Amino acid sequence: MSVPLAHWDDVETFRADLGHLGGTWRDLGRAAGSRAVGLKRIEIHPGKWSTPAHVHGAEEEIFYVLGGSGLSWQDGDVYEVGPGDCLVHRAGAEAHTLRAGGEGLDVLVFGQRIRVEFAPLPRAGVGWLGRRWADLGDPGRTPWAREAEAGEPEVGEPKERPPRIVNEADVDGEDGGLYKSLGSTAGAEQSGLNLLRLPAGDEGAPAHCHSVEEEIFVVLEGEGTLELWPSPARAAEGVEREDHALRAGHVVSRPAGTGIAHLLRAGDPGLTYLAYGTRDRADIAYYPRSNKIYWRGVGLIARLEALDYFDGEPS
Predict the structure, then answer these.
(1) Who's near 150: CB < 8 A, 6+ residues apart?
(2) Three-class SS of residue 73?
(3) Which domain holds residue 196?
(4) Which residue has the higher pLDDT, 274 or 125?
(5) Measuring CA to CA, how many Å separate 191 from each of 37, 157, 204, 278, 314?
(6) Is residue 159 part of a domain?
(7) Which pick of 129, 188, 235, 306 has the fewest CB atoms within 10 Å?
């Protein structure tokens, strides 16, 4: 099977520098083989801004600060951010961007890849976007160029942080704080971001695979193993279990519908990682070691007494 694994040191970088915007980017999600969700690492240059201020109509974004310091700009107000902070920007909510402090700001950006219908009207020079229309304009004047022309946003004194910004140290978590739901604590609705700290030899969620949801894992500290378990149908095709070594900086992508279950196990130094996924109520999860199926939409989990699968044509 193809290895759904990349290390951020090996991912090609690209710079985005224009006016007050400036940063070094890595597309970690695509490097690891993600399909329906995305993950980028942005190292925002000192004193620069990450992106044009923007708000998504359908997608939800979750940010995690790896290092440095800076400001989160939201609808004209600013809030201080630093290592271990999690920021949630829900669809259709506040416009947002980031400005790095004097030492720069290093962030991970998790998001959905939702296709939004856009209908160009070539003769009219506009396009329908949902119930609104957009000027097709000059393709050479990108949103980045227009943002640079508009100049740097005004920045006042930082305000008290809203509930949509939380620090991992302030989230109680479960199992003595080893499992922390950062995304949901900060108000995420369509997706989730969890922080897990596994002692040596412990495993995260039991080996499982999803029918609809896609997950991405980012190793922050320690070492461990990614275990890949084929479903009975995939095993019948000759797919065998695989183990892959993990260390800090590894990114694991687990697209939906592969029939390959995954499990992360901590090595001797322990393992700390972020787990990101969507929340689709149509999802079905299968657990090969216990032969259980979980139907999220109806909140039902059951063990299969017998297993029958087909090759595309129902019997």
Answers:
(1) none
(2) strand
(3) 165-303
(4) 274
(5) 10, 31, 19, 4, 33
(6) no
(7) 306
